[in-house]
């Protein structure tokens, strides 16, 4: 089977403030020692981090049951044995709990059809590893065709790309020791020329490798001669990615090829004819194949030749003899569309089967050569799911069809071209309960207006209240398409427990062909990241989830994506799983296979290219003052493609810079892990997902985090037009839910508040201070209105106090930040017009703590009565001042607000007015607007007072058993002499 695109020996990398471009000679990296893969110091550090991670994960009561469930799935024998027909037998490589390294085995089709086939063991890898004291990992076999009596086995020490190659006799089931072809460990590529001749691309010694660590020389090795005597056939340049050979021995045609990969996506293909190499005249980024007497050409860019222009993504075909003679008249077997692409194709004895993606959904088409023309017919395919097809053998028109979906276990069918019936050979059992789940396809609009699709798997009738735990997975690179697959682990640990799973189809992938990939190459890389951000924002805008409940995950190139999301949008995501990532893009091309990916990302050693790479490189964009969500890094010392130093250094840098990490998984799961270091874990240890909130304590934490997100979203959220009537809707929700404001409905209350607060964003977004003050007032007011009804319930009322405490503290912090910087004209005008005041909320006392309440009751009652009387007296003055301030729109050019004693509001160049601000009492203090000086004013003092209010009044109420309200709250403000500046809000009789 041929796939689009063909990858080299690897799938590339399994991964807001703009940083200025750094010069080629970057500053010394203090964590370079962590790039020593097997260095004792680095390994000791990694073990320490692993211990922290393991201890934290295993502390969760959910860890053991999830771990056991996943292990039973991974060790289950209820799996489809993947088979390939090689000669007379169907071969399979099998691993389970009893065969950790695996069995290479074979059977017949008649046996395979049975529920329990009889298998003949060809090679026991566990026994081989034990006998040779090696950690062998199976890497496949290359057969000698057409006889299939010999093959070349590839064995890896530990699972890396470097392999040992050994010739194997399938008839005797033993390695060939007498003049056998055996190669030492290296990143080796081999192909059979014939029984006694091999093409070998490997490490032949100094100067034989490219900068990417792959072979740059292909030699022809004859049996019975030493490898050193093998004759060179082709040599590439050190700057190339690699060179390799491949031989087509099908349909009675023997053709030998050499491929020079200049970059990851471009190169030269040569056909060997005798001792002569003929370079094929096709575009450098095209892929060449062969089908019987025809050459196939798959384009990645538009090609104008022979008076015609063929589109990027097209599949062309022409007779070999005419092509080699100079003819360039091609038949077009696939023509791409705006939202269609070619996922791959396979060939049977007489047909080609095309696998196309239409709106990221697989569609199969049969192409047949009849009467001198090519005829195309559709084949049946499912609506949702992934479909792969491969020919059984070249001597027949039989094919294997594998169908899988998010909710549909993989099924293997045997079909024959020309018949509609397909035989179901094997089907996976359902490893998780799919009842009530559904798959939908949605679209988000990226920053530049591009529509970006994504799949969503969730419960039917999903409650769109923003509280659903959601896992968003992404990759976005190397023209790899993300299509639906059946993941038993994701289903059992996430979907079955109430989570939402989302698969992103961002640019950089191959969902819509080469153009979709090329749109995010090199200097345009940010588009892929903007697409992912847009999907996250769309999930929140659709109320599927919210920041505290939105986790993201990706590996390799997807790990780079996770690193960028962590550093560019830490405010958008609640948790990050960053797997085997690329993170230090300043040095990625110097680490392992990194240089082979410069066609995707660019060369950081070129200043012009580092200029755009540096803007997103996660390792260089960590900010000590940022607040990041929790992140789990995974990597492996045996990964010889993506260097483990990326994940190691990122974790160390986060820890050393004192980055303030979030103190919980922010609602992704029910538990709140302790604050501390970034978590770190080596690959191989599975980390289960957290479950959705389910118990009372879980709901309490989820509700608390929800309300924090509500307030933050209100202050710094998206476009106001999204919720024009949100304020009215939010209040209505609160009114409807008064009688249900108990723990089980805390989420509903929080989202009612969210609607109300989003309406506040209709104010000018630059008016940060005024908006924060107003939002603070509204928050306390709304919670105060609900207080009486809440206290009538027997539920844990202290939850409401906890919610208020966290929410108010967050707002207070925001006001402090806003007050610490100069105010612009627009802000000053807004502050002058808005009530820069706060309303202390009525206390939520715990019914259980009656004795503590009684001790403080009298002191509080006196304060309450005084506040209530003061508010009644001030209400009229407050309304009068607001009307007069609104009439002074022309004051927009003035620069600051400055205390001016009791002279009222004065505009420079005008007579002072005698208006009083709300809160004037024994100490009358007004405001004067002045022209040029930039100083903070009474509004800033009030802003700072807000923060103290949180710590004094609200926090004091929550801790009243230890210290009374008067001691910790009101007294602090009386001492500060600022109480008469507060427009004190509605205070309830019930405390």
Distance between the termini: 74 Å
Q: So what's the overall shape?
A: globular
Tell me the β content: 15-25%
Q: Please give the number of β-strands.
A: 45
Overall pLDDT level? 74
Structural class: alpha+beta
Biggest sheet strand line-up? 33-34-36-35-37-38-40-42
Descriptive notes:
- By secondary structure, the protein is an alpha+beta fold.
- The chain is 28% helix and 25% strand.
- It is globular.
- Helix 13 runs parallel beside helix 15, helix 13 packs parallel to helix 18 and helix 16 (768-785) runs antiparallel to helix 18 (798-819).
Short synopsis of the structure:
With 991 residues, this protein is an alpha+beta fold. The protein is 28% helix and 25% strand.
Note the main attributes of this structure.
991 residues; alpha+beta; five-stranded antiparallel β-sheet; disordered C terminus
Question: What is the secondary structure topology, with strand pairs?
Answer:
Blueprint: E1 2-3, H1 40-58, H2 63-74, E2 84-86, E3 89-94, E4 103-107, H3 109-112, E5 120-124, H4 125-132, E6 136-143, E7 150-157, E8 163-169, E9 174-175, E10 182-186, E11 189-194, E12 197-201, E13 217-222, E14 231-235, E15 242-250, E16 253-261, E17 267-273, E18 276-279, E19 287-291, E20 294-298, E21 303-305, E22 308-310, E23 315-319, H5 320-324, E24 331-334, E25 340-347, E26 351-358, E27 362-370, E28 373-379, E29 386-391, E30 398-404, E31 411-416, E32 422-427, E33 437-445, E34 451-459, E35 470-473, H6 488-493, E36 500-504, H7 514-518, H8 526-541, E37 550-555, H9 557-568, E38 575-579, H10 598-601, H11 607-613, E39 627-628, E40 630-635, H12 645-656, E41 660-661, E42 679-682, H13 696-716, H14 726-737, H15 746-758, H16 768-785, H17 787-792, H18 798-819, H19 825-833, H20 850-886, E43 896-899, E44 906-907, E45 927-930, H21 938-958, H22 965-976
Parallel strand pairs: 35-36, 35-37, 37-38, 38-40, 39-41, 40-42, 44-45
Antiparallel strand pairs: 1-25, 2-3, 3-4, 4-5, 6-7, 7-8, 8-9, 8-10, 11-12, 12-13, 13-14, 15-16, 16-17, 17-18, 19-20, 20-23, 21-22, 23-24, 25-26, 26-27, 27-28, 29-30, 30-31, 31-32, 33-34, 34-36, 43-45
Helix pairs in contact: 13-15, 13-16, 13-18, 14-15, 16-18, 18-21, 21-22
